[in-house]
Amino acid sequence: MTFSAMVANASDGAIVLSREEVGDDFLGDGEVTIEVHYSSANYKDALAITPRGGVVRQYPIVPGIDLAGEVVASDDEAFAPGDQVIAHGYELGVSRNGGFAELARVPADWVVKLDGLSTRDAAAIGTAGFTAALSVRALLDNGLTPDDGAVLVTGATGGVGGIAIDILGGLGFEVIASTGKTDADDLLAELGADEVIGRLPEDPEAKPRPLTSARWAGAVDSVGGASLAYILSAIGYGGVVAASGLTGGPGVPTTVMPFILRAVSLLGIDSVNLPIEHRREIWAQLGGELRPRHLSALTDVAPITDAEQVLRSIQDGTHRGRTVFAVEF
Ligand SMILES: NC(=O)c1ccc[n+]([C@@H]2O[C@H](COP(=O)([O-])OP(=O)(O)OC[C@H]3O[C@@H](n4cnc5c(N)ncnc54)[C@H](OP(=O)(O)O)[C@@H]3O)[C@@H](O)[C@H]2O)c1
């Protein structure tokens, strides 16, 4: 049996993504074989085709940390042919072949059966939206309510940021969107942002202060770096910050002052190795009370053969929102 896949190959210090016909040896071990309908473009997929991107050790690999589609064969009684499912994270697209292919085989305990979401909407949410939902869930579980005050969302035009704005707006929070793009106000307002501000700190040259005037009750941050340090200094008493990303860098030049003088909580968010039971609960909520309301405003659909071009736009910072890949060759 052969099937089509977009395969990343490394040579001469460059990584090229191109269509290939591959065989059974490209399917990993596992109980569930999935005909992939949709994948999507995530920051990590862009890193997978970046030389020294740090997420893939061995090429060739089929990228795609998200895959949504239909079960075509299963050795596990929890799944049957015809089931509509999503799988994301774990080793997909980084140390085993991922979603940029017509077929994938995965362990049953990586698979989530979809309830109330189409495979296309599930891919539009994908790892980014799942991480946004995990972040919002973490704020709620730590007691944050709309009465506490405004919530900041950074990387606002990105996948995590955009869907976080959408979910928070739907829950009745006042949302402040921080973006580096000057022409995104209309999109961000449509998603649910009450105010749009620039990247943080507003003055990157100013000497960082351990604490500054309280501006927000909580934050969903996928930027990290100096931005996260500034946010921690400007969160109000008892506030909560969910941190998931590092587009602004991995180092966070902060002090203990926000924690010991304002009782601020910094909550770590990981979508990759989250145990499957918790993962299935969050997906059920994404089809229900945490369902993003404006996915279509945030999402483009592109053929999988455009994957390299789309991932390059993430690398150069011009991409916005979510791109779903239709896996048809
Ligand atoms: N912890 C997890 O499990 C998990 C899961 C998913 C993603 N992540 C991480 O979260 C981050 C965002 O992922 P994503 O999928 O949302 O990526 P994305 O769609 O590419 O969005 C990233 C956004 O970050 C902002 N940005 C880009 N470069 C920046 C810079 N130098 N400084 C500050 N902001 C910058 C941009 O928003 P604006 O132009 O609007 O500012 C961009 O749209 C990545 O670091 C990713 O690795 C982590």
From TrEMBL:
Keywords: Oxidoreductase. It comes from the Bacteria. CDD domains: MDR_yhdh. It is an enzyme of class 1 (oxidoreductase). Gene3D superfamilies: Medium-chain alcohol dehydrogenases, catalytic domain, NAD(P)-binding Rossmann-like Domain. Its EC number is 1.3.1.95. GO terms for molecular function: acryloyl-CoA reductase (NADH) activity. This is Acryloyl-CoA reductase. Residues 10-325 form the Enoyl reductase (ER) domain. The keyword Oxidoreductase applies. The keyword Oxidoreductase applies.
